[in-house]
């Protein structure tokens, strides 16, 4: 059963990365949020996804632990994704739970190592297990 859960999670994460990667790359305009970017600095030990190199979407309103290793990333106009190692999953999830609301996000579901959140323009999800974690934020349709 545990093996099936890992395989299922891997399929979901791979799909998120693949669908994000299939999006048109010819788009040049950046979707901006109706919620202004924070003017306060990121707390010590954290960094926005923008500070970690993402240029698209609401990367300036999502914090990650600054020492988190990112194994894979998608940075497109319509979707941003980070995939990391399981050792940092709990720290990433805790930080997201603590900071998303103060950066304009509504957390709509949480449990079992996963989190669903959004605002007027974007939908986001975080999920993890003992082999990987992934965070994806996409433009709401």
**Regions with pLDDT < 50 over 5+ consecutive residues?**
6-12, 14-34
Largest sheet: 6 strands, antiparallel
* Helical stretch tally: 2
Computed over alpha carbons, the radius of gyration is 14 Å
Taken as a percent bin, the fraction of beta residues is: 25-35%
Strand line-up in the sheet with most strands: 3-4-8-7-6-5
Q: What integer is the average pLDDT? A: 81
Helix percentage range: 10-25%
Shape: globular
Structure in words:
The chain has a six-stranded antiparallel sheet with strand order 3-4-8-7-6-5, sandwiched between helices. Strands 1-2 form a two-stranded antiparallel ribbon. It has one domain. 22% of the residues lie in helices and 30% in strands. The protein is globular and about 30 Å long. The chain has 141 residues and is α+β, with helices and mostly antiparallel strands. The model is unreliable at 6-12 and 14-34 (pLDDT under 50). Strand 3 and strand 4 form a beta hairpin. The termini are far apart. The protein contains two helices and eight strands; from the N terminus they run H-E-E-E-E-H-E-E-E-E.
